[in-house]
Amino acid sequence: xxxxxxxxxxxxxxxxxEWERQQTERHEFYNGDVFSQAGxxxxxxxxxxxxxxxxxxVLRGHxxxxxxxDMRVHIKxxxxxxxxxxxxxxxxxxxxxDEVITNPVLLVEVLSTSTADFDxxxxxxxxxxxxxxxxxxxxxxxxxxxxxxxxxxxxxxxxREVVGIDQVLQLASLGLxxxxxxxxxxxxxxx
Length: 191
Known about the structure:
Blueprint: E1 9-10, H1 13-21, E2 27-30, E3 33-36, H2 42-58, E4 65-67, E5 72-74, E6 81-82, E7 86-89, E8 100-101, E9 104-110, H3 116-120, H4 122-127, E10 135-139, E11 145-151, E12 157-163, E13 168-171, E14 176-179, H5 180-183
Parallel strand pairs: 5-8, 9-10
Antiparallel strand pairs: 1-3, 2-3, 4-7, 5-6, 7-9, 10-11, 11-12, 13-14
């Protein structure tokens, strides 16, 4: 569900944080509204897991941490709290609790039909307000395609689109390569 749709619950940020700890499903939060996370497909889940695993592999020997879709990101500037499909945070890790980070350097979303417009628009608008964020990757689940948004030193965002299963993406935030084939491993995408 996106903030454009009618939310089911209203609460303060503190009430949300306490309530969310007790839930079996994940919910995002913005401006007092709580939004259920839509259920994902096996392909969506596999691509998200592949991405987090692949980034973790290229980060061996580095201090940065990779988190999957269970780590909540709090955007202090807007109050939005989201669960990206993957995130990378480098020391010092900041957040109000072990359940949230506020200073990711890289965020990843895997597009779903129901969330694609929001992930590429409104959610990215929130993410851009994170001072530490250097890179935002948006992966398609029906073709080997990724939008790479990178922050420049003068605080502009550049878009690079990478298409093709044989492509290697340079992660600008980490200075490391990422093989698109790894993202789509064990899926029928790009084969």
